[in-house]
Specification:
This is Phage tail tape measure protein. The chain is an all-alpha fold. It has ten helices and no strands. α4 packs parallel to α6.
Length: about 230
């Protein structure tokens, strides 16, 4: 299952990041040690964040770097305030969508007036555009999370950090071993879908027909005996 999930998230990364997909895959290989999350977890988070940044106008040549920075920020916030990296990144994702309550858990306050002012300071003439709002939101988040930057790396010697890294590495190892079996498993599932299930469907359909006839016959016998 882990191998199948990794295969799926890799396809999603390629669809979103296009020519920058190689960079994201490179970041994901190091994510267990650098961020305490598996390759698959990294790629799933990157797909969501990358899509948001891309839709907000981030050019493809900057997309992988900005996405990685946000996921890294999520790992740092989780290390400082508790919770998981996934939860922190999801809060960052919500902030980009204008949903600002989740990010407050991590000491970040985003007011619309502050976002508009930051967008103007960044040089946007239309401060209400998606690109302006995203850029301003990211800038404010970066400023307000400055104390947390590098928090995950600073906790290297803690038990919590080491357990998180060990768990992520174990997940990656399981996915790697699973990938060796994936072609055979895919072929087996294909054969089941193509041959076995249609046969079982026909058998079930025929059984239902026979059962219906038996029920009708039993009903007639019962009625005749009344």
């Amino acid at each position: 299952l882990m191998a199948a999930d990794l295969e799926q998230s890799t396809g999603a990364v390629e669809a979103v990041f296009k020519t920058a997909a190689k960079q994201i895959k490179g970041f994901s290989v190091k994510s267990a040690t650098a961020l305490g999350i598996t390759r698959n977890e990294y790629q799933e988070l990157a797909t969501v964040i990358g899509s948001q940044l891309k839709n907000a106008g981030t050019p493809i040549d900057l997309l992988a770097g900005k996405t990685n920075n946000l996921i890294s920020t999520g790992a740092d916030l989780a290390a400082m305030y508790g919770g998981t990296t996934k939860e922190a990144v999801e809060a960052l994702s919500s902030a980009l969508k204008g949903e600002r309550d989740p990010i407050e858990r991590y000491g970040v306050t985003l007011k619309q007036s502050a976002i508009d002012a930051k967008a103007a300071a960044l040089g946007f003439t239309d401060v209400s555009s998606a690109q302006a709002q995203a850029a301003a939101t990211l800038a404010l988040i970066s400023e307000q999370t400055a104390d947390a930057h590098g928090a995950f790396a600073r906790e290297t010697n803690t038990l919590s950090h080491q357990l998180q890294v060990a768990k992520a590495k174990a997940g990656d190892l399981a996915a790697q071993f699973g990938s060796y079996l994936l072609p055979a498993a895919t072929k087996a599932a294909t054969l089941l879908n193509k041959y076995l299930w249609p046969v079982l469907d026909r058998v079930a359909s025929q059984f239902a027909t026979v059962a219906h006839k038996i029920a009708l016959f039993a009903r007639r016998v019962y009625d005749s005996m009344r």
